[in-house]
Amino acid sequence: MSKTVRRIIPFGSGDIPAVQRWLEDMAEKGLFFKECGLLFAKFTRGEPKKMRYRLDFCDVVACDIPDEKKELYEQSGWHVVGDYNSDLVVVCTDEPDAPEIYTDPELLVKPLKKLAGKQLACWIVFWLLSGWVDFGTLASSVILGDSSFVRYLLDFNTLYFIGLCLLSLLLLFEAIYHFIGWLRVRKLVKKLKNGEELPQGERRGFRAAVGKVLCPLAVPAVILWGVHLFFIGYPIGLNMGEPIKDIGSMPFPTPAELGIECGGSCNNYGKEHRDVLASEVAEYTHSNDYYGKDAFRYEVRYYDMRTQSMAKTLYADFVASASSFDPEQYALFADEIHKSNNAGCWDGEYMPQITARRFELDGAELTLVRDRFADSDYCIEQILCIRFENQVEYVLYQGDGSIEDYAQDFVDCLKKEV
């Protein structure tokens, strides 16, 4: 059995009475304080006995305690053990009649104020970090009503969202913990100023239990918050998928399978991944980089939802977003396109004409949305939203012909998956 053991530090430096009582309780269990690290305190095993521990202030730098200070302690029957969080000197004695080291409690006021400043700084930092966790488009998509919560989670990644929620709560709890610590130190300073003695024998069992959880997690929480900064503005769910190796095996037809020619050089790629809300999520794009007459776009998003209720919510969300638009945002986007070399038929002064038609086909519900975004027959985007049981597909098409002509092909692919 090892002669030394480590225990999580349950109290901050400002909880002097509680720390002293904790060290005395450990000595009664046969564990005697040796040294203190960032998260853990080391104890040496021995025969259980009653000890008295006290914390004092001193210029503690790498346990370099002045010799004259040590002599004063020893003359009073106390022995220097080490330091606590590089803020306090830890002394102990097994003599019940040894005089207290605090001859003038008011001398503790100034150093305690410094500790209160540290607690206040930690509270402010953790409070700011808890409020600055980036949830992507949560505010614009869900809170402002631009999207459903289900669609937001699928785009953002549900597990990542849950992780960020836990991180935000942890940082908030850390902030509350340090705020309470700051209040306690201030209260202690006020007592000492009023001539009261430093309290002894405070166990604070609940606070110790909370401290054993929050103290070790403080540094990892800050590190995780820093790591999450690299993902700000990055839609995790849409970009962490694996490339689709066999497009032909997916639950939707390709342009070639539909007999549609894109004309010119086209790019195509696909990704798929899983989510807590969907057993399968897949995306496929086949398009060129042109605007106007020669433009071709064929994009499909496929979702196999866990429940039919979530599938209905997602389907309704796609239909609503495809059937409406923001005139101001559209005008800005059209103006930017118009200034580029691929101006095509985009015109910021033309307001889109959107028509939507709902229908059923072979047990599936569908909605076809036509968006004429300029005064030309080839400036039309067609969106086909399909739901069959738990499956949802969103198809965006810009090219010759009508995507409605291929609605049966999409439904047949979905039915094969059931």
Give a verbal description of the structure.
With 418 residues, this protein is α+β, with helices and mostly antiparallel strands. The strands form three sheets. An eight-stranded antiparallel sheet has the order 7-8-9-10-14-13-12-11. A three-stranded antiparallel sheet has the order 1-3-2. A hairpin with a 2-residue loop joins strand 11 and strand 12. The longest helix has 36 residues. The protein is elongated and about 100 Å long. The model has no long low-confidence stretch (mean pLDDT 82).
DSSP strand content: 15-25%
Q: Could you say which structural class the secondary elements and strand pairing correspond to? A: alpha+beta
H/E order of the elements? EHEEEHEEHHHHHHEHEEEHHEEEEH
> Count of helical segments?
12
Helical residues, percent: 25-40%
What ranges have pLDDT less than 50 throughout 5 or more consecutive residues?
A: none
| Distance separating the two termini | 60 Å
How many individual β-strands?
Answer: 14
**Major beta sheet, specifics?**
8 strands, antiparallel
The average pLDDT value, as a whole number, equals: 82
Please tell me what the overall shape is. elongated
Gyration radius from CA atoms, angstroms: 33 Å
Task: Identify the strand order in the major beta sheet.
Answer: 7-8-9-10-14-13-12-11
